[in-house]
Amino acid sequence: MIELVNVKKVFNAGNPSEFSALNSVNLEIAQNKVTVLKGPSGSGKTTLLSIVGCMSRPSAGRVKLNGREITSLPERFLTDIRRTTFGFIFQQPNLIKGISVLENVMLPAYPLGEKRAHLKMKALNGLAGLNLSSKASSQVEWLSGGEAQRVSIVRALINDPSIIIADEPTAHLDTKLSYRFMEIVEKFKAEGKTVIITSHDPLVYDSAMVDHVVNLRDGKIEDE
Amino acid sequence: MTPWIEKQRYIIDFTISSLLRRKVKNIGLLTLYTLIVFILASTMFFTHSIKKEAAIILQGSPEIVVQKIIAGRHDLFPISYIDSIKSIRGIANVETRLWGYYYDSLVGANYTLLSPPDNSGTTQLSGKTTAVETDPDDAEALAATKPLFEYNGALLEPGTLIIGNGVSRMRNISKGDYMPFMAADGQIMNLKVSGTLSSSSELVSSDLILITDEDFRKLFGIAPQFVTDAIVTVKNPNEVSMVAGKIKKRLLDSRPIIRDEILRTYDSIFNWRGGMMIVIFSAAVLAFVIFAWDKASGLSAGERREIGILKAVGWETSDVIQMKFWEGAMISLTAFFTGVILAYIHVFFAGSPVFEPALKGWSSLYPNFALTPFINAEQITTLFFLTVVPYTVATIVPTWRAATIDPDSAMRQTGE
User: Fold this and answer.
1) What is the pLDDT of residue B129?
2) What is the ipTM of this complex?
3) B301 touches chain A (CB under 8 A)
């Protein structure tokens, strides 16, 4: 379970351009459930998601992961948690150009020093699971938008994370591909993973598989 | 294989693929970098070897040369001074020399004319001056007594001369040809070439012409009671400076020049020439430094984005820095070794065509000789620390700055 206590995030603190993205957010995210952070642009969804995913630190407040306070951990430990606990699906596929689909998928596992043959097998299985086997050796520049999105999902799963974080995953997908994405999310849920999604797409937050919708506005959680 | 080694392999593999992804930029950088190392290493190899070469050849030069000085200028040396020098304790032998420079207006070159010691005819051994016999097993002593030039058995007699290889090339003449000179009295002297000097000593004998005592005096208008200078052999090499001091004390208008001073002069000439080369190329070096600094320190938007992605997917700051370190090290080491190897081939095998005119020879006479490879480890190390280390550091610093930024920047990427 993830617990946020009185979390604040201020950008450009002390400058005239100081901006408060999150104001005293208290939130509990349940395990093995699908949670959607909903809200208009600038409401603080992505900021909240990045704090939950150990990608940035709150300016104030505490974040607990399975009861363990992680806010004050040094960067090394945060990276370790990020690498083993979270899988990230970005708004853009954020794949590295010039290298193959397979290499992109294997990238998050490089720092773990896993055996190459084993890692390659895992990556190929992941690609097969999303019908991308034929694209394994292709350069990422040649992929369509939907394919690139699915590759980024396989990459997010390579270290077998227990929590999947997706930032506006359907923002650049058409309706058909968005439904396809939600099917994948359903599969994650069935496998017992926790899924946290930010979205202002009704196709996502109105979906039957979503267990909890958190409404954000101006950096605060609105009452449901 | 331990996970640590496997991790390093992954990082190195990814680094190589990163380098290949920016082929044009990296090949351009590598070429320029290699060129700079090549220029610096060539100059270093050349200057160092030529100095070594000169030092080895000059081992055979006289221990002390005594000149006469009038008002700070070199003047003709009276033969009557010889007896005074000979009477100094510790001197083994005194010989006189006749030599001078001759300007050849036809080709615009200066020749060094020398009457070999045996032809001057003024050396007389007395009870006080006994020549020291050389031990045939002592290589150093043999080298010291070896003549500066060898003329391969050619016979020097009045009306003939023996020329250095540079003169031979410049005038396109060889054995049997005639060479005209204008004597001091305005008459033309036509001397026959009876041989050429050995090419092994070409560094110092390229512009040399050997001529008999008689012809020399006629050409330069020097009276029989004068010579150009005298060369002194000392019994104990440790006493060379002491003997030089005694000569100076006894003959106030004399100037004794010891061999070490000649070696020092050669050293400073070639140091100066090498220094000039580096000064000339310093503009190129500076241009490279600016270029390399710009390329190495300024991460492009694409590279920043890539670092953001790597961090977001779970790479640590140290992994990213390690990757960039390998990238910088690969480029700089490749450039360094390629540049040094090319410079080695250029200087020691190809005869350094790029630097030849600036670094060796003088006037318009250039010696033609193959340098023996001498490499100074200190210079190579200096070059290494001046090129590889700054570049590698320059690549790490900006990466460290970029890599310590929160990885959530990757999440905020809105477009490619």
Assistant:
1) 38
2) 0.85
3) no
CA A51 to chain B, closest CA, distance in angstroms equals 9
Residue contact B408–A98, C-beta within 8 A: no
d(CA B97, CA B82) in angstroms, rounded, equals: 12
Residue type, A114: E
Decide yes or no: CATH 3.30.950.30 for domain A2-94+162-222.
no
How far CA B187 is from CA of B193, B194, B213, B218, in Å, comes to 19, 22, 18, 10
Instruction: Give residues with Cβ within 8 angstroms of B191, minimum separation 6.
Output: B159, B160, B161, B178, B179, B180, B181, B211, B215
Mind telling me how many Å the CA of B374 is from chain A's nearest CA?
45
**C-alpha span between A88 and B362 (Å, rounded):** 71
Q: Is A113 close to B316, i.e. CB distance below 8 A?
A: no
B342 confidence band (pLDDT: 50, 70, 90): very high
Residue B377 in tokens: 């480890």
Q: Which residue has the tokens 């604040």?
A: A8
The residues of chain A scoring below 70 in pLDDT are 223-224
What does the pLDDT average to over B264-288?
73
Report whether B79 contacts B65 (CB < 8 A). no
A48 vs A44: CA distance, rounded Å: 6
Q: Is the pLDDT of residue B405 over 90?
A: no
Where does the pLDDT of residue B258 fall: very low under 50, low under 70, confident under 90, or very high at 90 and above? confident
Rounded to the nearest 5°, which phi and psi values hold at A108? -65, -20
Distance CA(A50)–CA(B290), nearest Å, equals 38
Cβ neighbors of B356 (< 8 A, separation 6 or more) are B366
Instruction: Give residue limits of the domains in chain B.
Output: 3-56+267-411, 77-227
Look at A90 and B416 and tell me if their CB atoms are within 8 Å. Answer: no
| CA-based nearest residue to B40, from B359, B348, B393, B379 | B379
Residues B149-197 have pLDDT tens digits of: 556 666 788 888 888 888 888 888 888 899 999 988 889 999 999 888 8
Q: Considering only residues B200 and A69, tell me which one the structure prediction assigns the higher pLDDT.
A: A69
Q: Chain B closest CA to A73's CA: distance in Å?
A: 14
Residue of B nearest to A105 (CA): B313
Provide the pLDDT for residue B370: 59
Q: Rounded to whole angstroms, how far apart are CA atoms B283 and B140?
A: 44
**pLDDT(B120) > 50:** no
Strands (DSSP E) found in B188-334? 188-196, 208-211, 226-227, 229-234, 254-258
The amino acid sitting at B335 is A
Burial class (CB in 10 A: 0-12, 13-18, 19+), B23: exposed
Q: Is B353 helix (H, G, I), strand (E, B) or coil?
A: coil
Output the pLDDT for position B118: 57
Bridge partners, residue B210, by sequence? B114, B162
CB contacts under 8 A, B 17-36 vs A, are: 17, 20-21
Q: Are residues B411 and A114, on separate chains, in Cβ contact within 8 Å? A: no
Stretch B312-340: mean pLDDT: 87
Window from B49-53, B286-290, B367-371, B372-376 with minimum mean pLDDT = B367-371
Burial (CB < 10 A; 0-12, 13-18, 19+), residue B220, is buried
| Ramachandran class of A215: left when φ > 0, alpha when ψ lies in -120 to 50, beta otherwise | beta
CA distance B343 to B354: 10
